[in-house]
């Protein structure tokens, strides 16, 4: 649509820009508006960025002028032909101002016509490509059970390798587990598009394979025009430079509604790192980050699906400047507690420095955070499991028929589920604001598993609805996955309460640390035969030492006493578990 207006001898044309042909996509999402009203724009400059299920695409301007306004907002869904923006086209040349609307429309659509011609040429050449006997296949990360990015810690293939379907391509490591990513196709490795240390998620590209089969679909050539296309901005690599960030922060604070002025940068352009190439951000955001000296790998995105927005970059710069004024945090390790002084142990004898695995590092950080933030109280008691053990051993023959081994842990988890139902105070979490409690109406119990890679806690769901056989089978399955590093993130999430058992190792007792945001954890040590007074004489009974740690912000002593008493009752007489 074109509207004309005359002002002081200059013809002003208001041109409405619509969504061009998207190559088959029915609807797409507007994920980035790259300009402000009044900004000048040239032909082929990006107006906005759209995203379909498969790709992100810049929508170029078909005319030069100034942006009047956007007709859509970020997050809107549009389709081919929808109006997206209005542009003022000012021209003092009489010949051009007298042009007919049909002529203007013809000029406006030249890039689309050229694109169509290029597409037809590519399709005419397609039969020549179809004669090939092999195809290129991009291998993607399968569903890893989480929307979060995980770290690539090992690449198991090399360019030129022949790979069979099911062979391990890469190894990923999340907060709690290490997982192998198998190949979904057999073929030859043409290119590896990731590097160790990169952050990957479901659907991210891993490697390009040459696979046997039909030829690939013809690749449509890019339209060729007489106008040069501006280079896309390159994201900065490694850490940002302090001076550009400080200058950028001043610009952001002085004019929050305007784009920051470019800070002084080195003449040489920074190289594109593998991590920076994978960040979820549009060209305009990458350009701003480049001008401000910000590494996008350090910025958390708040847009749809974690996309980094302009405001995210601005807020990151402000936070960097704010943190610069807090040097005391370094002396306290960031927790407000003085750090342990470094010691040169080599002066006392021969030493060896062993790197911690990622799981060990995360466990250490989680334990410290939980210990510092949760006011712990631990209560102790013994459960008489003499009859329980006799019953469990009597299930051995039946277990061999079922292919299931019943351990004391199965009875403990079943009893914990019943105790949580009877004492819902332990099936809660503190809300983030600290002013409310979240009552959970499901019953999932985590069990700590010691593995060569470190401590992990898989979760058994709905234990209150399962029997001993089902729980035993699930314990065996999850423990095996944990030891092999095959646990998925989803299998370690959603716990209401945690069991930590050292019964197979030994010890008389210990104080377990609450696994926040849970409010309770049960620690179990090795059972022992001890003399117990039955009212007439001392008799030998098998006693199980238990330690219940709880968050005193959510649980008081009376709640803990009732929970522990109920648990001891269930374990001492397993008939109560059937009620």
From TrEMBL:
<keyword id="KW-0012">Acyltransferase</keyword>
<dbReference type="InterPro" id="IPR003016">
    <property type="entry name" value="2-oxoA_DH_lipoyl-BS"/>
</dbReference>
<dbReference type="InterPro" id="IPR004167">
    <property type="entry name" value="PSBD"/>
</dbReference>
<dbReference type="Pfam" id="PF00198">
    <property type="entry name" value="2-oxoacid_dh"/>
</dbReference>
<feature type="domain" description="Peripheral subunit-binding (PSBD)">
    <location>
        <begin position="280"/>
        <end position="317"/>
    </location>
</feature>
<dbReference type="InterPro" id="IPR023213">
    <property type="entry name" value="CAT-like_dom_sf"/>
</dbReference>
<keyword id="KW-0808">Transferase</keyword>
<dbReference type="InterPro" id="IPR036625">
    <property type="entry name" value="E3-bd_dom_sf"/>
</dbReference>
<dbReference type="GO" id="GO:0006086">
    <property type="term" value="P:pyruvate decarboxylation to acetyl-CoA"/>
</dbReference>
<comment type="subunit">
    <text>Forms a 24-polypeptide structural core with octahedral symmetry.</text>
</comment>
<comment type="similarity">
    <text>Belongs to the 2-oxoacid dehydrogenase family.</text>
</comment>
<dbReference type="InterPro" id="IPR050743">
    <property type="entry name" value="2-oxoacid_DH_E2_comp"/>
</dbReference>
<dbReference type="GO" id="GO:0045254">
    <property type="term" value="C:pyruvate dehydrogenase complex"/>
</dbReference>
<dbReference type="InterPro" id="IPR011053">
    <property type="entry name" value="Single_hybrid_motif"/>
</dbReference>
<keyword id="KW-0670">Pyruvate</keyword>
<dbReference type="Pfam" id="PF00364">
    <property type="entry name" value="Biotin_lipoyl"/>
</dbReference>
<dbReference type="InterPro" id="IPR000089">
    <property type="entry name" value="Biotin_lipoyl"/>
</dbReference>
<dbReference type="GO" id="GO:0031405">
    <property type="term" value="F:lipoic acid binding"/>
</dbReference>
<dbReference type="InterPro" id="IPR006256">
    <property type="entry name" value="AcTrfase_Pyrv_DH_cplx"/>
</dbReference>
<keyword id="KW-0450">Lipoyl</keyword>
<dbReference type="GO" id="GO:0005737">
    <property type="term" value="C:cytoplasm"/>
</dbReference>
<protein>
    <recommendedName>
        <fullName>Acetyltransferase component of pyruvate dehydrogenase complex</fullName>
        <ecNumber>2.3.1.12</ecNumber>
    </recommendedName>
</protein>
<feature type="domain" description="Lipoyl-binding">
    <location>
        <begin position="136"/>
        <end position="210"/>
    </location>
</feature>
<dbReference type="GO" id="GO:0004742">
    <property type="term" value="F:dihydrolipoyllysine-residue acetyltransferase activity"/>
</dbReference>
<comment type="function">
    <text>The pyruvate dehydrogenase complex catalyzes the overall conversion of pyruvate to acetyl-CoA and CO(2). It contains multiple copies of three enzymatic components: pyruvate dehydrogenase (E1), dihydrolipoamide acetyltransferase (E2) and lipoamide dehydrogenase (E3).</text>
</comment>
<keyword id="KW-0677">Repeat</keyword>
<dbReference type="InterPro" id="IPR001078">
    <property type="entry name" value="2-oxoacid_DH_actylTfrase"/>
</dbReference>
<dbReference type="Pfam" id="PF02817">
    <property type="entry name" value="E3_binding"/>
</dbReference>
<feature type="domain" description="Lipoyl-binding">
    <location>
        <begin position="14"/>
        <end position="88"/>
    </location>
</feature>
